[in-house]
Amino acid sequence: MPVASNASPSPAAPPADLPSVVEFRHPVFSKMEDCHFQLNHATGEAMLCVTIASNQAQLPFPGLIREFKLDEHDQQMLALLSDGLKFVGSLRLGDPLPKEILTGEATWELSPRHERIAHQRVSMQLVNWLTGVEDLITDPEALMQLADDPGTKRKVNEAFGEAAERLGLGRENKQQMVGYVEKLAHELAYIEALRDKFAHVLDIQNKVDGLRKVYSRERSIADMIDQIRKLLEIAVKDFKRRFLEIDAQTGEILSVLRNLENQVRFIRSIRDDLHVRLMAWDELIHEWRKVEVCVSYHINNTLSRIYQFLAPRFMKVDDWVLMNKLKEQKEKTQKKAATAKVLIW
Asked: Which residues contact 2 (CB under 8 A, 6 or more apart)?
C-alpha cells in the first residue's frame, strides 16, 4: 500500500486569513501604557495588562469586548491570544503569534542532540522491525553509540530499503523513505526534549525523598514532606503515563510511516500538552537545582512553595476544599486570639 502523497516533509501553510502577529483595529490598545497580554497565574485566564497611574492593572477579555464594543477581528485576536498564551509567557502588540496555533509547529527551538536521538530512535525501530527484535533501546547514550557502529549503519540502510518496498515506494526510492523518517524524527525530537525536562521533575522528587530522611526526627517538617511526596508521586505518574502513551502510539513504526500526517498531528497534540504542563514547573525546577539535601534554615519556605504549587493541581478536590476551610478557620482563630490579647492588655 503506497504512502499517502500528503505525507510530504514540508509543513502546511497557515490559512491566508489568519493573523500572524498581535494586532488590533481599535485604537485603545495602542494608546495604553505598557500594554501586554499574559495569563493570570492564579486562574489561568488571559488578561490585558496595562499601567494606570503607575499601577499595574489586569483587565479580563470579556470586559474589554463589552466596554470597547470590539469588532469581529479584534474578538478573534483575543481568542487567538487566549490559546497562544499557553505557549509563551506574554505577548505585546506586533509580536508574532505562537506557531502552535498557526501551523501546528512548535515555537521553541530544538537542540541538535535531541534531533540526533530521535532520528536514531526511529532508525532503530526500523531495524527492530526488520530483524524481528521486540526490545526497543530507549537510553539516549546507547542509541548514540549504535549510531556510529558500522554494522548498525548497514542494518539501517537495509531497513530503509525494505520499508520503502513494503510501503509501496520501491527500493529504488529509498531516499523518499529517508524524508519520511526525517519528518517523523523531527516531530519526536520535541518529545525527547520534553523527556529531558521531565528528568528535572524526577530530580526534585529524589531530593524531596532525601530531605525526608534528613528531617525524619522533626515531625512538623516530616509531615509536610510526606504530603509533598504523595502529591509528587501523582504528578510523576501522570507525566510517565503521557510519555508511555506516545511511545506506544509510535511503536509500530511501519504503521506510523504509513499514516504519517495523522501521526504528526497526534505527536504535536501530546507535545503541546506536555510542554504547557512542564512550563508550569519552570520556577520550581530553577529553585530546586540550588536545593541541597541537608538541614537548612530556608527549608520551610522552600517546602511551602512546592506544596502550594502541587496541592491545587494534584490533591483531590474534596481534600483541597477541606484544607482551605481548615486554613481559614485557623487564621480566624489566630486573629480572634490576637484581638483578645490586645483587649486584655
From this structure: 167, 168, 169
Query: What is the separation of C-alpha 53 from the centre of its chain, rounded to a whole number of angstroms?
Result: 36
- pTM over 0.70, yes/no: yes
Residue 167's closest CA among 263, 273, 43, 258?
258
Q: Residue-wise pLDDT tens for the chain (345 aa)?
A: 344 433 333 344 445 567 899 999 999 998 888 899 999 877 889 999 998 877 888 999 999 999 999 999 999 999 999 999 999 989 999 999 999 999 999 999 999 999 999 999 999 899 989 888 777 777 788 788 777 778 888 988 899 999 999 999 888 888 888 899 999 999 999 999 999 999 999 999 999 999 999 999 999 999 999 999 999 999 999 999 999 999 988 889 999 999 999 999 999 999 999 999 999 999 999 999 999 999 999 999 999 999 999 999 998 755 544 455 445 554 555 555 554 444 444
Identify whether the C-beta of residue 280 lies closer than 8 Å to the C-beta of residue 306: no
The 3-state DSSP class for residue 56 equals: strand
